[in-house]
Design brief:
Layout lengths: L1 H7 L5 E2 L2 H16 L7 E7 L3 H16 L3 E7 L5 H12 L9 E4 L9 H5 L13 H8 L8 H12 L8 E5 L6 H10 L3 E5 L6 H5 L4 E4 L17 E4 L3 E4 L5 E4 L12 E2 L6 H21 L17
Parallel strand pairs: 1-11, 2-3, 2-4, 5-6, 5-7, 7-8, 8-11
Antiparallel strand pairs: 9-10
Helix pairs in contact: 2-7, 2-10, 3-10, 7-8, 7-10
The structure holds NADPH dihydro-nicotinamide-adenine-dinucleotide phosphate (NDP) and 5,10-Methenyltetrahydrofolate.
The site of 5,10-Methenyltetrahydrofolate (GUE) has 18 residues, from helix 3, helix 7 and helix 10.
Length: about 300
């Protein structure tokens, strides 16, 4: 009877919704913030007029306000120079004290004439709430405490929330960006997964993805992952956010995973409503932790992140 019912269903996969897991993370961030002597404060820097970046920063600032954190958005014009950008970061780095800034987030991508890596490297590592400074990346790869990139850390929090086992599992990541794929590989390795990272030069992507117990896709290619590329019962995390046109002329968001994968996977994150909300929630947690590291005795002399909770 059970078998018949399972066979009749097209959506076998358990849906791993982002909002409940994000709510738990936001609640933890709120409780930690309440123990601090300061109101955590984050500065967003956005350059140019990319509509997606505008909307992401608006969403993050709104969430910060909901949690009672301070935030400020620095929207710089498209013709901003590298020196202007570094000067603003320097000012925010130096803004210490009771009403100071604890987190600095540089929204990517930047206009083509600007060097994002050079700008990210200017951020004080203690204020690197996006976890993209080379110091943060190095600490992650050494398995040391530090601020972790929000999307990869949000994926880990989502897996944790839904009690998806990671230790001993074969995790396959599609994508190797500094923002998502690479740091995710480090985080999974730190909790004892066996990790494979695939990219455009991987000759037979399906051959690799079919080996995954845990498949995480961050390629930015709508519906790249089809059902034949997924081992039955695997957990599939769809990080991709793709804007595709619809008949009505309005863009619709879709992931890197084809919807038919739901018939094969054991568990699957939706897009939207999956990893996206986790990214925003993790940023709030990182901001509160950065504020703690900068203000609470015993945390102040750390280069970036000291609490045991940051280890993974
Ligand atoms: N939900 C969220 O919170 C977030 C979602 N995103 C989304 O995640 C996606 C990835 O983002 P990001 O990492 O910044 O993107 P990048 O474009 O920087 O990196 C994409 C990676 O995917 C690989 N890739 C692309 N196409 C293929 C393919 N056909 N086969 C194998 N590998 C492929 C690329 O390989 P190669 O290196 O060889 O070029 C690259 O490593 C995007 O859709 C983005 O919008 C990003 C951040 C947060
Ligand atoms: N320095 C930097 N840090 C980032 O973290 C960063 C970045 N640059 N550049 C771009 C990507 C993308 N990103 C998302 C954040 C939230 C959602 C999100 O909340 N998505 C909602 C839907 C949002 C909508 O409807 O548009 C969801 O998936 O449900 C998505 C994507 C962070 N990024």
């Amino acid at each position: 009877m059970t078998t018949d019912r399972a066979a009749a269903r097209t959506d076998a996969a358990r849906t791993l919704g982002g909002p409940p897991a994000a709510a738990a993370l936001l609640d933890a961030a709120t409780r930690l913030a309440a123990t601090l002597p300061v109101t955590p404060s984050i500065a967003f820097i956005r350059v140019g007029d990319d509509p997606a970046s505008e909307s992401y920063v608006r969403g993050k600032a709104k969430k910060a306000a909901e949690l009672g954190l301070h935030s400020a958005v620095y929207a710089l014009p498209d013709n901003t120079t590298q020196a202007d950008l570094h000067a603003l970061i320097g000012t925010l780095n130096a803004d210490h004290g009771v009403h100071g800034v604890h987190g600095v987030l540089l929204q990517l991508p930047l206009p083509a004439h600007l060097n994002a890596d050079a700008a990210l490297a200017c951020i004080d590592p203690r204020k690197d709430v996006d976890g993209l400074h080379p110091v943060s990346a190095g600490l992650l790869w050494q398995g040391q405490p530090g601020l972790r990139p929000c999307t990869p850390a949000g994926v880990m929090a989502l897996l944790d929330h839904y009690r998806i086992p990671v230790a001993g599992q074969h995790a396959v990541i599609v994508g190797r960006s500094a923002l998502v794929g690479r740091p995710l590989a480090g985080l999974l390795l730190n909790v004892d997964a066996t990790v494979t990272v695939a990219h455009r030069a991987t000759p037979d992507l399906g051959d690799v993805t079919r080996r995954a117990d845990l498949l995480i896709v961050a390629a930015g290619q709508a519906h790249l992952i089809t059902p034949d590329m997924v081992r039955p019962g695997a957990t599939v995390i769809d990080v991709g956010i793709n804007r595709v046109p619809t008949d009505t002329g309005k863009a619709r968001l879709t992931g890197d995973v084809h919807p038919d994968v739901a018939a094969v996977a054991g568990a699957l994150t939706p897009v939207p409503g999956g990893v996206g909300p986790m990214t925003v929630a993790q940023l709030m947690m990182n901001t509160v932790q950065a504020a703690q590291n900068q203000t609470v005795h015993g945390h102040a002399d750390q280069s970036n992140g000291a609490s045991g909770e940051l280890l993974r």
